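Hey, resending since the last one bounced:
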Amino acid sequence: MHIATLEEIKKEFPELRNVNKIHRSKLSPLEKLGLTVTEKVGTMGFFFIILAWTVLWLGWNMLAPLKLRFDPYPAFVLWLFISNLIQIHLMPLIMVGQNIQAQHSELRTKYDYETDKKAEKAIETILLHLESQHKLMEQLLDRVEKLEQKK
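The structure tokens again:
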């Protein structure tokens, strides 16, 4: 039974790397933009900005003096048009960002698996060393007991 040494384990498994840095470094500027948009749009801050914009827009166009209203109630055509433009442009960007996040997740999973394999091999080696030491200690105890019996 061969007990792997630390050097053998290091040779068998590459040094661990920061997957986040590796993934980010491989992204194009447009992919970084898509990822940033996905991360920012998916926040409560963005939700509150859209909510405030909607409340202000609809409130102004329902409650302001008639001469100052620019998007008449109840249709709010301009508001609907702008909202749809925002949605049409954000949806593909969010999908691009989600695809990039999925790729990152797959890369992390791959590296986690490699880390787990390395840790398993190291633990196995430690257990083999402990088992070997245990056998040696038993042999030493047997010898000591035999020496004491001879006295």
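The mean pLDDT is 89.

Sorry for the duplicate.
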